[in-house]
Amino acid sequence: MNAYLRIFRYSPHLVSKFVQFFVFSLLGIVFSVLNLSLVIPMLSVLFDQHQADTAPPMPEFSLSVDYITGMFNHYFLSIIITYGRLEALLFVCLAIVMSIMLANTFRYMERMVASRLKVDVVRNLRMDIYRNITRLHIGYFNDQRKGDLISRFTNDVAEVENAVMNSLKFVLKEPITIIIYFAVLFFISVKLTLFTLLVLPITGGVVAEIIKRLKRRAQESQESLGRIVDILDETFSGMRVI
Fold first, then answer.
1. Would you say the C-alpha torsion 3, 6, 11, 12 has a positive or negative sign?
2. Is residue 199 part of a domain?
3. Hey, which end of the chain has fewer CB within 10 Å, N or C?
4. What residues contact residue 71 under an 8 Å CB cut-off, 6+ apart?
5. Quick check: is 115 in a domain?
């Protein structure tokens, strides 16, 4: 965790960017879940042949899912009774379109914040590496291959760039996504959600084993890239001498 904090400190105004990323991610996830939730009343309009004569009363205000559900049912059934099923279906379709547009807008803003953070980290990290290398004693370079040093600027920094994006998703975005989606799943069906949780450890174990193998191969790949750059540099330098 300390390594990630050291990397993120290369970006100025870090707390502000974290807050923006968190807020935009949260809003994007909420509207994405809303897209799925609005499918249920749309199917109800299409296939439910039993129509209520009166709309349910407006619920009392409270910070709960029941209040939001009751308020939506009140207005939705009022539209069905007053204007008919076709107008109610049009209302749901427009709500889905608006929700999709808002979800994509917040996703775009989230990625813009992440991109600014990534660019700042990569730029300042490369400048820091360059300053450190120029301050080293000349004898240091006798034991180091030029290809390995060049690989630090290119391949290793590219890995840090990917790590910045992945860590933002895993630390700030994915926990929110899991919590909100599981809350909605438990609200819809507790039994089906519990059955899904029983299958998760099996799939998680398979994914963890695949990740371990990929990490070993990634380390070998980074070492081989340094050797390749070193060989290419020696080849091109030798061609100029010849």
1. positive
2. no
3. C
4. 58, 59
5. yes
